[in-house]
């Protein structure tokens, strides 16, 4: 299962948070939290040199497409 699918399936768990994953595997979420800099640091501590970090909006948040 890809990481984007994992985030969508667990949107309630990650809502309002930043999620970091390892782009070399694209299947492993390595960190999550409310502050992007802390999530990036945690991902690096987990061994990810350049993590990809995405923000998961609250369920009722408006989005522009």
Structural class: alpha+beta
Q: What's the gyration radius in Å? A: 12 Å
Task: Kindly estimate the percentage of residues that lie in beta strands according to DSSP.
Answer: 15-25%
Order of helices and strands: HHEEHE
The helix fraction, in percent, is 25-40%
Number of domains: 1
Helical run tally: 3
Low-confidence stretches: none
Distance between the termini: 25 Å
Characterize the overall form: globular
Q: Order of strands side by side in the largest beta sheet?
A: 2-1-3
Explain how this protein is built.
The protein is built from three helices and three strands; from the N terminus they run H-H-E-E-H-E. The protein has one domain. The protein has a three-stranded antiparallel sheet. Helices cover 32% and strands 23% of the residues. The chain has 65 residues and is α+β, with helices and mostly antiparallel strands. It starts with a helix and ends in a 9-residue tail after the last strand. The mean pLDDT is 86.
Write a concise synopsis of the structure shown.
With 65 residues, this protein is an alpha+beta fold. It has three helices and three strands, in the order ααββαβ. The N and C termini lie far apart (25 Å).
Question: What topology does this entry show?
Answer:
Elements: H1 3-9, H2 11-14, E1 17-21, E2 29-33, H3 36-45, E3 52-56
Antiparallel strand pairs: 1-2, 1-3
List its traits.
65 residues, alpha+beta, 32% helix, globular
């Amino acid at each position: 299962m890809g990481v984007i699918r994992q985030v969508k399936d667990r949107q309630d768990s990650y809502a309002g948070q930043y999620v970091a994953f390892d782009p070399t595997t694209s299947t492993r979420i390595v960190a999550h939290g409310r502050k992007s800099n802390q999530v990036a640091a945690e991902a690096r501590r987990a061994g990810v040199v350049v993590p990809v970090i995405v923000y998961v909006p609250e369920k009722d948040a408006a989005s522009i497409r």
